[in-house]
Write a structure and sequence with these properties.
This protein has three helices and seven strands. The chain is an alpha+beta fold and 162 residues long. It is globular. The N and C termini lie far apart (32 Å).
């Protein structure tokens, strides 16, 4: 479980810098869709995968060839891709005023049960970047397969300032 603490005063861009995190290049679609769509004050991301420059960072199912820790790192990598897509769309992560929803889809083997631990890789990164006041609800699902054989795909909806 992620516990909400006091958020630092700095904005998301400064927090990334303070954490020593460099975002990957924004992802490009693997099909006929766009990575981000703005509707009103919401940005809806397409499914974000753990890729850098269209190259998978992880392949396989969690609980099979990949451990829970590998899955957690893949969730974090997918979230970094999501943050890069948001920044590319808005120009700055500081324009994000809320995280409305996080969905984490995990390709798993058989009786895998550590879904929350894997999903925390995404949730905890968002907590560090945006602060506790923006901690969202989430849905976590185990699935049979994901695009290109990757272990994790995230769905993210954020609210932006006018």
């Amino acid at each position: 479980m992620v516990s909400a603490g006091t958020a630092p005063a700095a904005g998301a861009e400064q927090r990334l810098s303070d954490l020593g995190i460099t975002l990957p290049p924004p992802p490009t679609p693997f099909g006929a869709y766009v990575e981000a769509v703005k509707m009103g004050k919401l940005i809806f991301l397409s499914g974000m995968l753990p890729v850098v420059d269209r190259k998978p960072q992880y392949i396989g199912r969690v609980g099979g060839v990949l451990s829970s820790d590998d899955g957690r790192k893949a969730a974090e990598a997918a979230t970094l891709s999501g943050l890069a897509a948001i920044k590319d769309h808005l120009g700055s992560l500081d324009k994000v005023v809320g995280v409305a929803k996080l969905g984490v889809y995990i390709a798993t083997e058989g009786d895998f049960r550590d879904h929350p631990k894997v999903a925390d890789g995404a949730s905890e990164l968002l907590l560090k970047v945006f602060g506790a006041e923006m901690l969202s609800g989430r849905v976590v699902l185990g699935v049979a397969s994901l695009p290109l054989g990757m272990p994790v795909e995230i769905e993210l909806v954020v609210e932006v300032a006018d």
